[in-house]
Amino acid sequence: MHQGYPIRRIASILQVTPSTLRTWERRYQLFTPSRTSSGQRLYTPQDLQTAHQLRHLLDGGLRIREAVSKLRSQTLREQSAPNTKAPSLWDEHQANGRMAVAQFDLPTLDTLFQSALERFPEETVLRHFVIPLFDYLGENWDQHPGGIAEEHFASTYFQAQLINLYYHKIPVTQGPRLAVSCLPDERHEMGLLVFCLTLMGEGYLPTFFGPDLPLFQFQSVVASSEVDGIIVSGKSQSLSPSQREVISEIAQNCTIPIFVGGPISRGEESYFEGVGMVPIGDSYQEAVHIIDQHLQSS
Fold first, then answer.
1. CA 175 to CA 219: how far, in whole Å?
2. Looking at residue 1, what is its pLDDT?
3. CA–CA separation, 12 vs 35, rounded Å?
4. For residue 127, is it within any domain?
5. Contact at 8 Å (CB) between 283 and 263?
6. Where is the HTH merR-type domain (predicted)?
7. SS3 assignment, position 228
8. Contact between 89 and 125 (Cβ < 8 Å)
9. Whether residue 274 sits in one domain with residue 179
10. Rounded mean pLDDT, 183-191
11. CA distance 39 to 126
12. Does any domain span residue 1?
């Protein structure tokens, strides 16, 4: 069961100090934190979602009072709308996205993505549009002659867009620093880019090194920067002998937590735990929760 998010997480998302957040909390009754026995505020997943929505409105130029009013109006509309409204919107968006990819129609694909970003927070667009689209392409690439080309077409477009979003968010992101890369011989960085954006939305500052970084390079990264943890990811289900050798060495010599995500963290979970690394699976939110717990206890 999720234990809750500390105040620094919500404050980081909203880009305000904890004292400002407490003032807004009293004035606008936006959040419903519980208290630990020591008096620490713990915020719910719904509070986290509210913070993301509020940040999106503030980024659009609204003052805090205007943003709160609009957020409450949106909530009332959603509560009174039929339950099928939101799923049908994203079903249509995904269908149009699949059609644009199948026709290699870049203007339409770009319009779909940009229009979604204008209406919804990034996390919502990633969860309901980008990730399902790539799940579909990954499952169906071998079902027709153009499947590989479709996956490459979509990957090239979204990789550029996600990298742009990633670098745009860096100046306003403050929080624990994480070095992030694919495992050696792994080149599927799209999921890792999505995870970097998820981490930034949760108050972390991930430094993205892309695919196929030799693991021994992390020793220089740790020595040269104030990194709180390392995240590596792999899409395969098992490690090669050469990967095992390098991973064992880096795990023994590293003084900060090393987290492992993606399907490889499930397939080789016992091995990673045996060498002192932390498997975090391939669910973005669950992975963030595991990282939270580990860094807070270390």
1. 21
2. 40
3. 19
4. yes
5. no
6. 4-73
7. coil
8. no
9. yes
10. 82
11. 35
12. no
From the CB of residue 153, how many other CB atoms can be counted at a distance below 10 Å?
A: 20
Cα separation, 283 vs 117, whole angstroms: 22
Backbone angles phi, psi at 208, to 5 degrees: -90, 120
What confidence score (pLDDT) does residue 162 get? Answer: 94
Return the DSSP state at 206: E
When comparing pLDDT for 282 and 88, which is higher? 282
Place of tokens 């980024």: 59
- Over the chain, what is the mean pLDDT? 84
Per-residue pLDDT of 38-92, as tens digits, reads 777 888 777 777 877 888 788 878 888 888 888 877 766 555 444 444 456 888 8
Two tokens, residue 188: 């599927």
User: Which tokens go with 267?
Assistant: 């397939």
Structural domains of the chain, count = 3
**Tokens 């970097």, residue located:** 196
d(CA 164, CA 155): 14
Q: What is the pLDDT of residues 165-180, one digit of tens each?
A: 999 888 766 789 999 9
Beta strands in the chain (DSSP E): 34-35, 41-42, 177-182, 205-208, 229-233, 258-261, 278-281
Could you tell me if residue 238 is inside a domain? yes
Give mean pLDDT, residues 216-241: 88
Task: Write out the DSSP string of 118-149.
Answer: HHS-HHHHIIIIIHHHHHHHHHHTTSSTTHHH
